[in-house]
Design brief:
The chain contains 11 helices and 10 strands. The protein is of the alpha/beta class and 327 residues long. It has 3 domains: 138 residues, no CATH class; 79 residues, Ribonuclease H-like superfamily/Ribonuclease H (Nucleotidyltransferase, domain 5), CATH 3.30.420.10; 72 residues, no CATH class. It is elongated, with a radius of gyration of 33 Å. Bound molecules: zinc ion. The site of zinc ion (ZN) has 8 residues, from loops.
Length: 327
């Protein structure tokens, strides 16, 4: 009965249940190896004798709120045909790791809803074990990444090692998949991958990035025909910075004017003057109605209408590479 449970619930094949122990916080299944999966790795012979014995503990998925462990007793085998000696590896084992395969699948399922730390806490295992399972899965998924269908990519950097170093990440904007990650954020760091993209990603149409000169010139060199889209956040930040500088300049001019003429217009800050009719009227007397600030104050709202939210639309694309200076 318990052998069936171990097989159907935990996917354990080639074993026979021998006993179950109950602790206040855990259930411990003990099992031994059967002869079903014995096969000499050298000659394929199915007849072997026992030469040595050991037990291994494995983490298994919990039952209810109880942790589960498997204590597996098995033997070193000696082939009766070619005398080869080996420790058998069963399908539920994952190398020398201390968990069964179904436990790793449970971890991956839980990682869809929680962080590595919370999953480790829930399962009662170390953070490093959960991280290791996750990394193994990612390694498998991203061992080979096809670049042929990529149409839009994004490139950005993030800091590692408490801000002392940076990594550059290139993502497929349609799938959210990471295509490439490399330490550093210079042109030389990213250029080799962009050259690879130029060879393989024939359908590539656009790249979104911040206003880093390193990325900009790397793309110009490797993919000169590609549309470059600067993300709105950085454009808006530059526009707002320019507006603020202009406002301060205009305010200084207005203050100087007020000191000379004692006119009430100087009592109004420039930011109010653009919206207040009375202030506009007063400023008009001194030909201030055509403030540059007055004209560009609406620029942020107008720019906001230029790009879609989270989508790429070729007709709305803003290629500002020639109109905005690159930092
Ligand atoms: Zn053999």
């Amino acid at each position: 009965m318990s052998t069936s449970i171990l097989y159907h619930a935990f996917g354990l094949k080639g074993i026979r249940h021998t006993s179950t122990h109950f602790r206040s916080d855990a259930v411990i299944f003990r099992a031994e190896m059967t002869s079903d999966l014995i096969r000499c790795p050298r000659c394929g012979c199915r007849h072997a004798s026992f030469k040595g014995r050991k037990s291994r503990w494995f983490f298994m998925s919990p039952i209810g709120r109880k942790k589960c462990y498997l204590v597996f007793d098995f033997h070193r085998l000696k082939c009766e045909d070619c005398a080869h000696l080996w420790w058998p590896s069963l399908p539920f084992m994952t190398g020398k790791h201390r968990y069964v395969r179904s436990f790793a699948l449970t971890v991956l399922d839980l990682l869809r809803f929680g962080t590595i730390r919370s999953v480790a806490h829930y399962l009662g295992v170390g953070w490093d074990m959960v991280k290791e399972i996750h990394k193994a899965k990612l390694r498998l998924l991203y061992r080979r990444i096809s670049l042929h269908k990529v149409r839009y990519i994004g490139i950005d950097e993030f800091s590692i090692k408490k801000g002392h170093k940076y990594m550059t990440v290139v993502t497929d904007l349609r799938t959210g998949r990471i295509l490439h990650a490399v330490e550093g954020k210079s042109k030389e760091d990213i250029l080799p991958f962009l050259q690879k993209l130029a060879r393989k990603a024939r359908k590539l149409e656009g790249i979104a990035m911040d206003m880093s000169s390193a990325y900009f010139y790397a793309v110009l060199e490797a993919l000169p025909k590609l549309d470059i889209v600067f993300d709105r956040y950085h454009i808006m930040a530059l526009v707002n910075q320019a507006i603020e500088e202009l406002r301060r300049e205009q305010q200084r001019e207005l203050d100087d004017l007020g000191k000379k003429t004692d006119h009430p217009a100087n009592e109004y800050p420039v930011s109010v003057m653009c919206w207040n009719d009375k202030a506009k009227e007063l400023a008009a007397d001194y030909h201030y109605s055509n403030f540059p600030f007055d004209r560009i104050a609406l620029a942020p709202q107008e720019l906001e209408g230029c790009s879609g939210e989270g989508e790429i639309c070729p007709r709305r694309r803003m290629n500002l590479s020639h109109s905005i200076s690159i930092t």
